[in-house]
Amino acid sequence: MTDAVAGAGPNAPADKKTFMGHPRGLVTLFFTxxxxxxxxxxxxxxxxxxxxxxxxxxxxxxxxxxxxxxxxVYLIPVIGGVIADRFLGxxxxxxxxxxxxxxxxxxxxxxxxxxxxxxxxxxxxxxTYDIISEGRGDNRELFIxxxxxxxxxxxxxxxxxxxxxxxxxxxxxVATDDYRLSVRQDTFSLGGMxxxxxxxxYLSLALIIVGVGFLKANISTxxxxxxxxxxxxxxxxxxxxxxxxxxxxxxxxxxxGYLGQTYGWKYGFGLAGxxxxxxxxxxxxxxxxxxxxxxxxxxxxxxxEGLFWIGGLLAVIPAWLLVQQTELMEAALPxxxxxxxxxxxxxxxAGFKGDERSKMIAALVLVFFSVVFWMLFEQAGSSLSxxxxxxxxxxxxxxxxxxxxxxxxxxxxxxxxxxIPFSMMWVALAKKNxxxxxxxxxxxxxxxVGIGFFxxxxxxxxxxxxxxxxxIFLFLLYLFHTTGELFLSPVGLSMITKLSPARVVGLMMGxxxxxxxxxxxxxxxxxxxxxxxxxxxxxxxxxxQLASYVSTFTWVGAWGLGAGVLLLLLSPxxxxxxxxxx
Length: 582
What we know:
The protein has 582 residues and is α+β, with helices and mostly antiparallel strands. Among the domains are: 241 residues, MFS general substrate transporter like domains (Growth Hormone, Chain: A, Up-down Bundle); 69 residues, no CATH class. 64% of the residues lie in helices and 11% in strands. The chain is built from 15 helices and 17 strands. Strands 8-7-6-5-4-3-9 form a seven-stranded antiparallel β-sheet, with no helix packed on it. A two-stranded antiparallel sheet has the order 1-2. Helix 9 packs parallel to helix 14, helix 10 runs antiparallel to helix 15 and helix 11 packs across helix 13. The protein is globular.
């Protein structure tokens, strides 16, 4: 992407405007990304809980859908970045992406009445009744609905269903083998067709996927373009921008998580949509401060630009189809991505020599270990989200509790507090020639994510008769996971650009994003091992659910520690392969 000449054209006066010593355009991009992340993380905090309690998805289906969605979110930006670099420029690409995101997030607010749990009693001539839930969080209660809309409270256990005060309407207890469960979807009519509300969910997720594809990589590119080559303010600018990302995530998980689980899902998702709309509005209003840095590489006609708007909408169709094919993605990505890794490795061995070859091999090894890190770290949006909902005592202090979705605020809050101190720490260590190398930072990040899971396993020993773990242990998990992220994430993309030969940087960036996509699919497969039987979104056996979490988090923690120790042992070799790159 070419940069406009400073001082030329109608935007020249804006070139001199600064904010805290940085280009004024950084403020525009800061708030655009803040509101985009507000919408993204606000929706993410609610998604898996929403799927299991509103649409009554099984744990397997909900966590698989989340994994497919997250994998596509990290896969599509590769294409969006190429389109912006070659044709649209960042400004137009970000505008298209933001518009699609607004549509997607508001679409999530059209939830319908929700799916209905049905129960068929085998010993009553196969008569089917509705099981409905009332209330939210710990106040949710289940009822079986008898003819005449009479409701009787019910409780489920692994042994069966107990019905309170049923009199002659129902037996007091129905064994598990004596009933069958099914789900009836809520539908609406459109043009004479009956369409499940579930399809609005898939369409909304597809709009968000394509929207993120147009926006994610390109807004970061614009931040870099605001600074001339060698400008010492560049790193500080990206630090401020990074803070915007996490400020948006922190505010969203608190606000959307509270509204969605306290007053209704549509309010949480609706607020996420409002946030994205605000981001789009302020981005369009702040164009004059971008100094022409986000324009197309060469002027394009309105008709040509319109083709990309149409193409963006058409791209929603395959995204809508793919996001529903969770089993296909779980089967395909773990095969396709390693094959690509192997192909790039062969390419590096055959096509490069000397330092270039060794640097590329080092980069591929680090990318592999980053997949391990992110597949463990990204339990946050799936298994850890349901763990917070089902097996965590969410009391902060007596009389004050948070919702399960709000626990997603721990990660961005810790980043906002620690990002600058960590940056200062690396600078101070570098001055003393004590800064760890990139492989050592990756290794320490993996060890910390493993420790985080073991802390939660330890916390399970303090669960009471309600099988709920004190909130402090979940917070400590996120503390260790976030410090691990600060060891690994900020240097990941930088590592790729430094170690890759100039002519294949684009290829290696594609490998990086593909590896992130693979990590999210693997994260979903791990999360599915914690699946539990549910009725109307309520877990049948909370004790069994906690035991399942303890089992999975134990071996997941061991993976983190094992991978970290292995990489620590390999780090001297990798450091040698990296030559002058730290």
